[in-house]
Amino acid sequence: MDSSDNSDAPSPQSAETSLVTAGRDTKAQKGFVNPPVVHGSTVLYPTAEDLHAHRSEYQYGRHGTPTTRALQETLMALEGPQCAGVGLAPSGLAAISTALLAVLRAGDHLLVSDSVYQPTRRFCNGLLTRYGVEITYFDPLAGIDIQTLFKANTRAVLVEAPGSQSFEMADIPAIAAVAHAHGALVIDDNTWATPLYHRSLEQGVDISLQAATKYIGGHSDIMFGTISANATAWPVISETIRLLGICAGPDDVFLALRGLRTLAVRLAQHYRSGLEIARWLQGRPEVARVLHPALESDPGHAIWRRDFTGASGLFSIVLKPRPQTAVDAMLNSLKLFGMGFSWGGFESLIIPFDCSSYRTATRWNPGGPTLRLHIGLEAVDDLKADLDRGFAALNAA
Ligand SMILES: *Cc1c(COP(=O)(O)O)cnc(C)c1O
Q1: Is 386 a catalytic residue?
Q2: Is the CB of 223 under 6 A from ligand 1?
Q3: Torsional sign, CA 85, 312, 307, 372
Q4: Dihedral sign (CA 71, 81, 307, 353)
């Protein structure tokens, strides 16, 4: 949607306040704080003349409801003044695939960060190549050296910072400057930091994507994606969403909005607890390296400090060499850290991972077993005790 914000909120104001006030229309909601969950397909027109002229605030369920509008207005307020519109998708991956289908056509060339979320890579290799798009993966640390990879037909660059699993920090403003000089668009998967801690659209990104399944939902109870675009990209995003018939279910829209209201306090806690545990893990004898850009020792720290205002609770560690059976014993002994995919909910998670089989522009050779942790909202001391138990099992195996 791209209608002007008709919320109750005064502006301008901080993002934390916008998260609470934006998208609320108390009068239309008959005094209730939250919008209704509108389950609807048909919208009735009062007269034939109104029908002919498509004269009504809402036309059809797929094109928007009062519930989707409230969410979109809140996301627009969070993204900032560069945001011309926000599209909603039924998953983070659907947001990514929709954005790529919107900007690319047969014969185009796409540059993709080598550390992009793996299913994004599968979409590029499995579907975009089938439709005649040529893809080159680039080292996420390339910075302005990415210019050597541009071709006359390079249409877009897909970045993600920090990278999925391995947490390299790409220099997004540098990449965006090169891309724009070549007439290419920049698409950023901004799921890790959310627009609260990384204002992509203010740093040269044209399309900023969220797997709202993660921190925006925040409770591990929805699949959801969002596509925020600047004025350059919004027309083609909006058109493609309509052409593809992309829309999200009303209950999930409501839950995404409910999650967004408390994003600032949740994320601040994930940031604080995550960094405290990352520092504690740096001091553990079993740990060779902690991959977390907010740590001063991290190679991406300077870029993170310059471009981001916070960190989320997701990071990885490299263990000193141990057999898989010992790592499995560690994982099996944990009681608070659950094993499972996704992240961004209230609960702590841990998974082993290995990027070596699918990275093509860089080599993944960390020198030991790797684990990705999501630090949830449990007490930090309890999480440390749980990891202590894990390390004891690792050492005993
Ligand atoms: C989880 C994730 C996605 C995909 O989101 P889904 O809602 O699971 O489809 C995309 N990008 C990143 C960085 C993710 O972590």
Answers
A1: no
A2: yes
A3: negative
A4: positive
Length of the chain: 397
Give per-residue pLDDT as tens, 62-118: 999 999 999 999 999 999 999 999 999 999 999 999 999 999 999 999 999 999 999
The predicted model gives 371-388 an average pLDDT of: 98
Residue 5 has pLDDT above 60, yes or no: no
Q: Is the pLDDT of residue 202 over 80?
A: yes
Q: Which atom of ligand 1 is closest in space to residue 95's alpha carbon?
A: 9
Q: Is the pTM of this model over 0.90?
A: yes
Verify whether ligand 1 is closer than 6 Å to residue 189 (CB atom). Answer: yes
**Which H, E and C letters describe 29-51, residue by residue?**
CCCCCCCCCCCCCECCCCCHHHH
| Domains of the chain and CATH, by start | 14-261 (3.40.640.10), 264-396 (3.90.1150.10)
How many angstroms separate the CA atoms of 379 and 394, rounded?
A: 23
- Given the structure tokens 């306040």, which residue do they identify? 17
Bridge-based pairing of strands 287-291 and 225-229 is unpaired
